[in-house]
Amino acid sequence: MKVTRAQADENRARVIDVASRLFRQHGFDGIGIADVMKQAGLTHGGFYGNFKSKGDLAARASEHAFVTSRENWRGLEGMEPETALEAIIRAYVSPQHRDSPDSGCALTALGPDAIRQEAGVRSVFGRAIRAYAEKLTSLVPGRSEAAKRQRALSTLSEMVGAVILARAADDPALSSEILEATLAHLAPGGAAEKPAA
Question: Matching Pfam families, A to Z (predicted)?
Fold first, then answer.
């Protein structure tokens, strides 16, 4: 039976969504195309009708993850406009985000892997870093745009690094200490934790 264009688009979107979660959970090299297709409920044969390569899927899946993260940031801004920066930091540097790599930010789950990927994947990561930096630049205090940009990049680097280190630590107490130290530095206010970024 021939698949309609609408069904084909739906299947493609499902593969991208599943791949986005699986890549963040297992890494780009930790999961194969056959596993992605099986988890999406589709046959392996349909892959090349929708994607040029695994790298093409990795780029699209990463972009999907970044779009979701940016939507989460926008939601936090909308909920608390005066404390948007702190809300974003607390959601990002949280036990919930640390413990949910498959639904969290692709920078923390796949950033180190992206270094060794093809140009299409690295381009997606570069655009995401720029977008995050622009958003944070609009939120951080500073006397000039250059000072705000520098602080935004530093804040982003500390947030991402904290989650990566907290995930890598083999000691739960050390993992929590990393998150707490980062929050004490970046968001010393007393706001409650927000949902994962």
Answer: TetR_N (PF00440)
